Structures are given as C-alpha cells and as structure tokens.
Amino acid sequence: MKETHRLDQLIAAAAPCSRREASRLIRDSHVSVNGAVCRVVDRKVGDDDIVLLDGRRLTYCRHVYYMLYKPAGVLSATEDRHERTVLDLVPASMQRDGLFPAGRLDKDTTGLLILTDDGDYAHRMLSPRRHVEKRYIATVDRMPAQDAEERFSAGLTLSDGTCYQPASLRRIGADTVEVVLHEGRYHQVKRMLSCVGSRVIALHRESIGQLTLDHSLSPGELRVLSDDEAQRALR
Ligand code: URA
Q1: Which of 75, 76, 106 to mutate to test the pocket of ligand 1 (most atoms within 8 A of CB)?
Q2: How far apart are CA 74 and CA 228, in angstroms?
Q3: Residue 106 annotated in active site
Q4: pTM assigned to the model
Q5: Does the beta carbon of 187 lie inside 6 Å of ligand 1?
Q6: SS3 helix, strand, coil % of the chain, rounded to 5?
Q7: What confidence tens digit (pLDDT) does each residue in 19-74 have?
Q8: For residue 102, how far is its CA from the centre of ligand 1 (angstroms)?
C-alpha cells in the first residue's frame, strides 16, 4: 500500500515550517495538489501526488536537520522562562514541531550545534558507544601541564572519581588547544582542562564527526543540512 500523509504534515516536513504555519499556507491558497489549489488542511496526499508550495515542488521528508552557529549567551534548551534559547534563533519559516538541540553546549560556548526533530539521529550522534568525535578549540589562561596529552589519551579520572574515555589534546597556538572527545558530559572540556592546570577562557566547537562548522554562517545563524551533511555528523 502506498504511504499517504496529511497535506499540512507534508508542508510542515518539507517546507519546513510548523504545523500551524503549514495550515495557514494551505488556507491562504499557497498550495496546489496535482495542478489545483487545495485549501483542505487534512487532505491525504501520497508520493505520486504533485504538491507545490508557491510553485515549488515538495516531497515528504520525515525529519529536519539544521546547522546552527551557536553564539555565546544562549542556552542549549528548547525553552526557558528567563533566558534566550537556541530555538529562539530559529526563524518562523524554519520552526518545526519537536525541534530540539542534539546535545548541549554551555551558555558561553560557541560553535557547531545541530537542531533536529529526529530523536534516533540525536541518540546516534551522542551515544558514547558510537565514538563520534566532537572537536573543540579552547582558549586557556595557561598551557596544560607537560604530561596532559598522555593523561588525556589514557582516559582522565578527576579527583571526584569521574572517569572520562580516552580523548585527544593538542597545543595549536600560544594560548589555544584542540580537544577531541567521543562523549559529551557536563562541562567536560572545562573540567578535563582544569584537571591538567588550565582554565578555559573561551570554548568553541568546530566539528562533530566529519561535519565541520560552515564559516559562511555568522554566530546566531543557521541553515538546513543536506542529507549527506547530516550523515557526516554520525561518522
Ligand atoms: N565541554 C564543556 O566544558 N562545555 C561545553 O559547552 C562543551 C563541552
């Protein structure tokens, strides 16, 4: 049997936009099905139907994946009563039911954050068992101790007993180091660097798996990831 979807679901998934915005677009005659304007929000459409939004062909995609250049000063959360969250940076045309940040960066951390509505995808990216690399650049108050690189690669244990998986540490500038982790625990980079004598002044995530931050984005901007790019963040 051919799969069918409600018209508003298809618009929301493919535009992408929220379901409410999709209903408005349908009611305001922006959508046609097989050549005729359709204002029926719950009309059933299948893969063979030709659905156009303002003349652009839409095909059903189940999930969305956005690359956000997270700026400092916003929370990696879906909502907060007092502070701005990363979802407040998503323009209305890209809002989507169930959107959330796949993983957390601290409020003051900048860089690559993926927003999606696909829980399985986020799990695959974040599970420590999958060993997806997360690469950070940290500016530090002073360089880590001499033996820090070996301690990172052996798997660091903090004085409170917290054990981290083996990670990599590399000096890349007078006051900057690169840290590569395969897990994403609370304040992990800051806590690991503190354990080897360095306080983090600024922290930036540059890549997840084989997906690198697109530097044509400015802090606070986001764009849709292609399927191939979304998959690269899992490798
Ligand atoms: N490690 C940290 O300490 N902070 C982040 O935001 C991410 C990793």
Answers
A1: 106
A2: 28
A3: yes
A4: 0.83
A5: yes
A6: 25, 30, 50
A7: 899 999 999 999 999 999 999 999 999 888 999 999 999 987 778 999 999 999 99
A8: 14
